[in-house]
Design a protein that fits this description.
Blueprint (H helix, E strand, L loop, with lengths): L8 H10 L3 H12 L4 E2 L1 H8 L3 H13 L3 E4 L4 E4 L4 H16 L1 H20 L8
Antiparallel strand pairs: 1-3, 2-3
Helix pairs in contact: 1-5, 2-4, 3-4
Length: about 130
């Protein structure tokens, strides 16, 4: 049985399968909280205190993931999930993130650490 304050399984699965990094999550939630906002890299960069280059990469990843629409010519993005299920998951994630920030960020960091360990297992000795 789950703990009363435990993150629901569907939100945990969403984090594990759909959230690549904490900056990715933060960018997603910025867009979620301002669905009418049209974002460009400099706006997102100033919100997240990252470079515009990294912000543009995050916005493009979010668009590829179906979270944002993308006006490719001007590199402008807007929150518009590709399904109602995706919209509900982002809403639930936002609600849980505020009260479970450490648990959620640790979950993301553990996931990325496990991926790194897995990829390192395939490195040849003597490779940089």
């Amino acid at each position: 049985m789950a703990e009363p304050d435990a993150i629901p399984d569907n939100v945990r699965r969403f984090i594990m399968t759909g959230i690549d990094s904490v900056p990715f999550l933060e960018a997603l939630l910025q867009c979620y909280k301002s669905p009418e906002q049209i974002w460009d890299a400099s706006q997102m960069a100033s919100r997240l205190f990252i470079s515009p280059k990294i912000a543009l990469q995050l916005l493009k990843q979010l668009a590829l993931g179906g979270f944002l629409t993308h006006d490719g010519g001007a590199d402008r993005f807007q929150y518009q999930p590709s399904s109602d299920e995706q919209r509900r998951l982002v809403e639930q994630l936002n609600n849980w993130y505020g009260s479970n920030l450490i648990e959620i960020t640790n979950l993301i960091h553990r996931k990325t650490g496990n991926i790194r360990k897995f990829s390192e297992a395939f490195r040849f000795k003597g490779d940089p």
